[in-house]
């Protein structure tokens, strides 16, 4: 009977630098934090550039950070083999869209009210006066 001895392989951050995207996907469930760290090293600059175009420079770093938080917490949803960047880009799009929606909701109401008042004065005001017709005088008895 032949015996095969298996030597355990130690995975380190530096050893992941030479791994392919397919290998990283395979290692994601068992070495999540190391793999996400390597994904950050590889893909964060591209994701940051895309995020800056979508939400602006000031929020781009926050979007990228949130992308990798989501990747850590949703590692059980493994991307297709070798499809790390598209998977991360999809997460980035959702995070950036949420960020833009939050920024829109945080827009001061006073600015919206001033815009509405200006609209009413410029556009609707004259139309409302025309619709009212001439003012009637009422006689007192």
In angstroms, what separates the terminal alpha carbons? 123 Å
Strand content: under 5%
Q: What low-confidence regions span 5 or more consecutive residues with pLDDT below 50?
A: none
| Radius of gyration from CA coordinates | 29 Å
> DSSP helix count?
6
- How many strand units? 0
Q: What does the average pLDDT come to?
A: 79
Q: Characterize the largest beta sheet: strand count, sense, and whether it forms a barrel.
A: none
General shape: rod-shaped
Structural class: mainly alpha
Question: In sequence order, what are the helices and strands, one letter per element?
Answer: HHHHHH
Oligomerization category of the chains in this entry: single chain
The portion of residues assigned to helices is 55-70%
List the helices and strands and how they pair.
Blueprint: H1 13-16, H2 21-27, H3 32-55, H4 57-73, H5 84-105, H6 109-132
Helix pairs in contact: 3-4, 3-5, 4-5
Task: Provide a brief overview of the structure.
The protein has six helices and no strands. By secondary structure, the chain is an all-alpha fold. It starts with 12 loop residues before the first helix and ends in a 9-residue tail after the last helix.
